[in-house]
Design goal:
This protein is 29% helix and 17% strand. The protein is built from 25 helices and 31 strands. β1 and β2 form a beta hairpin. α9 packs parallel to α14 and α12 packs across α13. It binds ligand MGD (2 copies) and molybdenum atom. The site of molybdenum atom has 3 residues, from loops.
């Protein structure tokens, strides 16, 4: 038996190559079921290096969407990439090269696509990078101000799940807690525990209130809140608590700063609008008596205010984070085991895991000589508006003038919002190079496509700092076509630039993997245990970290003694009004939690729907979309949107019908599955169906069910500039015409 691993789990396989989840994984992922078939799906794999015809003939930009490709040799591809890199460096400077290359790529420690690419680009003179993530940019920018911690550090310290089950009486789960999303862990996971943890919580009698437009798998109460309005509910819970004089005054005084201004706002003293339960009920579409009853039930109880990541991928996404923290502070439960404030339970597998953190080694970084960057979700703005100013975290910056875009291990035509706008932006650079193993929408829009291996086609190491198991990833099947490891691709390009040794440091892939293991052995020694030697580990395939459990409680030391263990915030305390942010004077992100209606959907026009585009249960984003599991879950090849039966009846739609979703930005087709446990004014279309835009009856139409043709490309606020995928309004109508065949699941035209 051999092993391998992915972001969605760890697997064993024998001679037949069939992947079997680890036996001790309590809830193996669905995503993994489609992995091998996607890797072996030759029709959608990039099998040879190709160049875009027009680009080879000197066309820079323009026809990047509909041109055809020419197959070229690896030697030619390497030469073209190296020459183009040199040309752009010389003509426009290193800043003109964009190597942000956001995306999840694959889970192995060595063949990490972005790290490989960035090492090569940094050695060759540097590149403009990107900051933060599509997952939780609002939190990443906000938390250092609010909590004095990075989002990552806070996540590391989050109240451990077993402690929640043991101590918590009431859990407010804003955005829900879901084993759908907990299938995934960046860098890999050996087990999936969120489902059983939720079950355990339920059995222990914890009152779990899922506050979300969709019930999902929630076992307890469900409050079907109107999307984008959580801040109003949180403010009302604070208001009702204060009105009864039951806020934890001692905690607020000892551990927070800026409570008075927030309280004046919540009570209506500063703006004349008391944020009462009745006020919030109208905004959130929830019964005022329920809000008042909950506010009465919370004080004095062991409570936890938990937010899913998705809530802040919304207009003013910073606000529910500020309001959630303020509510948790008013209840005074922060710093105690299993209660307080949390962000991201269930959003991925390791959040809240009671695991020992071990800083396993990764590829050494090369210092990037270019310091310029963009906030990750501002890519289309940067391409469309070079040199123009934009606001970010209290500063005014200017977009760089990007001439060469290199993407490796990510799929902007999956992840970005308003893909029609991204297509316009994508015509601007002179050259786009993409390393990919599948013919994603991004690869189809490149000038030079370099076919990469999948993680199943190579050896690697799974070492996740929050996972109790290490996996030696053995090759599962031979590379398809001419696919090569990103490492080898970049090593050859480095050679053409005279940088081979600097890039490889004289090692091949196995040499690097051995080196990482040697470093891991040192890390383990430091942590008080020993790893087997490399050859033993390679043949064994798996190693379990001893004494892997560690239960954490965020802010415990600080709450015990705020004077002796101050936070690194402006006041040394949790900031409920943050003066630094207030001084930025941003109308879309004031210094304390504020109800700000989103840019669309408040109020919702008659007959319109909120579009929720959360993560798919059968894939990781666009990955494995051509695998068996994702394909089997579609209806007539279309992605399936969930719709309330009442709404469907109004639209004259039955289960399985095709519908067209549209708004001013675009339109897509998808199929419908009826779902009673959701709001009747929402439609829920998962992300990740490969973008397939066609001209139907003279109009551009995405025919596969990709929500990002509808979403809005705007920052959460001038503070974080995170994406606002979840703030989106659409029209829904039945589609009676024939369904056009998909074009994206087969090879593009290659001469
Ligand atoms: N509407 C809407 N949009 C969203 C979201 C949402 O909630 N709603 N969520 C957002 C979020 S949170 C995220 S994180 C993003 C995710 O967006 P991405 O991370 O860009 O999506 P993936 O499909 O995971 O893209 C990874 C790509 O890397 C490729 N790849 C895998 N392994 C390798 C390798 O070894 N080498 C190379 N060269 N390539 C490899 C895969 O084939 C795949 O195409 O999407 C965002 N977009
Ligand atoms: N299977 C699978 N799992 C994944 C991924 C995947 O692609 N596939 N991607 C991974 C990645 S990169 C990330 S970042 C995480 C994301 O994890 P999350 O952000 O937690 O997941 P989402 O599915 O985007 O949304 C979470 C929930 O928020 C609810 N919601 C939407 N809008 C609102 C709102 O305004 N208010 C409230 N209260 N609720 C709202 C949705 O109904 C949904 O139930 O998932 C990870 N896990
Ligand atoms: Mo994400």
């Amino acid at each position: 038996m051999k092993y391998t691993a992915a972001h969605w789990g760890a697997y064993q396989f024998g001679d037949d190559g069939v992947l079997r989840p680890l036996q001790d994984d309590p809830q193996p992922s669905r995503v993994g079921e489609g992995w091998r078939s996607a890797s072996l799906h030759a029709a959608s794999r990039v099998l040879t290096p190709v160049a875009r015809k027009g680009w080879l003939n000197g066309d820079k930009g323009g026809a990047r969407c509909n041109d055809s490709f020419v197959a070229i040799s690896w030697d030619k591809a390497t030469e073209l990439a190296a020459t183009e890199l040199q040309r752009v460096h010389a003509a426009h400077g290193s800043q003109a090269i964009f190597g942000g290359s956001y995306g999840w790529s694959s889970a192995g420690r060595f063949h990490h696509a972005q790290s490989q690419m960035r090492r090569m680009l940094a050695l060759s003179g540097g590149f403009t990078s990107s900051r933060e993530t599509y997952s939780h940019a609002a939190a990443e920018v906000l938390f250092p101000h609010l909590l004095g911690l990075s989002n990552r550090a806070f996540q590391d310290d989050m109240p451990a799940m077993p402690l929640v089950a043991e101590h918590c009486d009431v859990l407010l789960a804003f955005g829900g807690i879901s084993s759908r999303t907990a299938q995934i862990a960046s860098a890999g996971t050996s087990r999936h525990e969120v489902g059983s943890w939720l079950q355990h919580l339920h059995e222990k009698g914890c009152r779990v209130i899922t506050i979300s437009p969709e019930r999902g798998e929630a076992l307890g109460e469900w409050w079907p809140i109107r999307p984008g309005t959580d801040t109003a509910l949180m403010l009302a819970l604070i208001h009702e608590t204060v009105a009864e004089g039951r806020e934890d005054k001692a905690f607020l005084t000892r551990c927070t700063s800026g409570w008075d201004s927030l309280r004046d706002y919540v009570m209506g003293m500063s703006d004349g609008v008391p944020k009462t339960a009745d006020w919030a009920a109208a905004i959130c579409d929830l019964p005022a008596p329920d809000i008042r009853a909950l506010a009465k039930a919370l004080p004095g109880k062991a409570s936890l205010v938990s937010l899913a990541w998705g809530m802040q991928r919304a207009d003013h996404g910073e606000q529910p984070l500020m309001a959630g923290l303020a509510l948790a502070c008013a209840l005074g439960q922060i710093g105690k085991p299993g209660t307080g404030f949390a962000f991201g339970y269930g959003s991925t597998a390791p959040v809240g895991r009671a695991a020992r953190l071990i800083p396993w080694p990764s590829l050494p970084k090369v210092l990037n000589p270019v310091s310029d960057y963009i906030p990750v979700a501002r890519i289309a703005d940067a391409l469309l508006h070079p040199g123009e100013p934009y606001a970010y975290n209290g500063t005014t910056r200017r977009y760089p003038d990007l001439k060469l875009v290199w993407w490796c291990g990510g799929n902007p035509f999956h992840h970005h919002q308003d893909l029609t706008r991204l297509e316009q932006a994508w015509a601007r650079p002179e050259t786009v190079i993409v390393n990919e193993h599948h013919w994603t929408a991004t690869a189809r829009r490149a000038d030079l496509v370099l076919p990469a291996t999948t993680a199943l086609e190579r050896d690697d190491l799974m070492m996740n700092r929050r996972d109790p198991t290490l996996i030696y990833m053995s090759q599962n099947h031979a590379p398809l076509g001419q696919a090569r490891d990103d490492f080898d691709i970049f090593a050859d390009i480095a050679e053409a630039l005279g940088l081979r040794n600097a890039f490889t440091e004289g090692r091949d892939a196995e040499g690097w993997i051995r080196r990482l293991w040697t470093q891991a052995e040192e890390v383990a020694e430091h942590a008080g245990f020993s790893l087997p030697d490399f050859d033993a580990f390679r043949s064994e395939g798996r190693f379990d970290v001893p004494d892997a459990n560690e239960e954490r409680t965020a802010f415990a030391d600080f709450v015990k003694d705020p004077e002796r263990s101050p936070l690194t915030t402006e006041s040394g305390k949790l900031t409920l009004t943050n003066e630094t942010i207030a001084d930025m004077g941003l109308s879309d992100c004031p210094g304390h939690a504020t109800w700000l209606p989103p840019v669309e959907g408040a109020p919702l026009e008659d007959g319109a729907f909120h579009l929720i585009s959360g993560q798919p249960s059968t894939r990781l984003h666009g990955q494995n979309d051509t695998g068996e599991t994702s394909r089997a879950a579609k209806i007539r090849d279309r992605e399936v949107a969930r719709l309330h039966p009442g709404a469907a009846a109004r639209l004259g739609v039955v289960d399985g019908d095709a519908v067209k979703l549209s708004n001013s930005r675009g339109a897509c087709l998808c199929a419908v599955a009826l779902e009673p446990a959701m709001r009747a004014d929402c439609i829920s279309l998962p992300t990740g169906a490969w973008y397939d835009v066609q001209t139907i009856d003279g109009q551009r139409l995405e025919v596969h069910g990709n929500p990002n043709v509808l979403t809005r490309d705007k920052g959460c606020s001038a503070l974080s500039q995170g994406n606002i995928a979840h703030t989106c309004v659409v029209r829904v109508e039945r589609w009676d015409k024939p369904l056009p065949p998909l074009t994206v699941t087969r090879q593009p035209k290659i001469d």
